[in-house]
């Protein structure tokens, strides 16, 4: 987990076990630990039970699982518990996206860009705008859902997943390396913004704040930093579009 992470958790087991887990996490949080746990991604969301059995998930998967939920699960990793639950997840992830499902996810990506980013932040949002971290993360996960054989054997973060994308030959190594370096820059920017108590997702417009951010990151002024950010956004979006076209043809 990173500085900006919460924990989207899906519990497989008995309801009482999930309730006990929630109670323990609340106790730890009350003691001052900055741990946020979100259980809303479970089947049926807030209205569903806290825990799922293997049988109930199998039924949910067959009858009601939506494409966006598949994508959320594609980013999941087991953190403990009974090993018999894992084949269900692995079986789900082993099914490639259909062309229709792929286009459905692209539509969802476009909606996030247009609905979650205020118009005045469109070119400065480090997550959701064109060329932000979402472009890198979505391209990686779309590729692995389109061709599950590209998924690394052990979930080990974005850098390992980018290495798998390079091995897939969907993108040339130079493009993958550019995604890798720019993604690291976006993460450094977000951490610096948080340390300065600014909005961690938005490059500030205020010249003084921009210069303060540039100083933390060792740039020769805010304008020099902004120029590199804009170049990075342009290149990431170009590579994202190129990767999507290749996946549509795959």
Task: Write structural notes for this entry.
The chain is mainly alpha-helical and 250 residues long. The protein has 2 domains: 7-66, no CATH class; 99-249, Nucleotidyltransferases  domain 2 (Four Helix Bundle (Hemerythrin (Met), subunit A), Up-down Bundle), CATH 1.20.120.330. It is 58% helix and 3% strand. It has helices at 15-30, 54-63, 67-74, 86-93, 99-116, 133-146, 158-168, 173-195, 207-216, 222-249; strands at residues 7-8, 11-12, 37-38, 51-52. The chain starts with 6 loop residues before the first strand and ends with a helix.
Q: Secondary-structure blueprint of this entry?
A:
Layout: E1 7-8, E2 11-12, H1 15-30, E3 37-38, E4 51-52, H2 54-63, H3 67-74, H4 86-93, H5 99-116, H6 133-146, H7 158-168, H8 173-195, H9 207-216, H10 222-249
Parallel strand pairs: 1-3, 2-4
Helix pairs in contact: 6-7, 6-10, 7-8, 8-10, 9-10
Describe the structure using short key phrases.
250 residues, mainly alpha
Short description:
The chain has 250 residues and is mainly alpha-helical. The chain contains ten helices and four strands.
- Would you tell me the overall average pLDDT? 86
Uncertain spans, ≥5 residues at pLDDT below 50?
A: none
Q: What overall geometry do the principal axes of the alpha carbons give? A: globular
Distance between the termini: 33 Å
CATH C-level class of the largest domain: Mainly Alpha
Residue share in β-strands: under 5%
What fold name goes in the CATH topology slot of the largest domain?
A: Four Helix Bundle (Hemerythrin (Met), subunit A)
Total helical segments: 10
| Helix-and-strand structural type | mainly alpha
Give the C-alpha Rg: 20 Å
What is the CATH-assigned architecture of the largest domain? Up-down Bundle
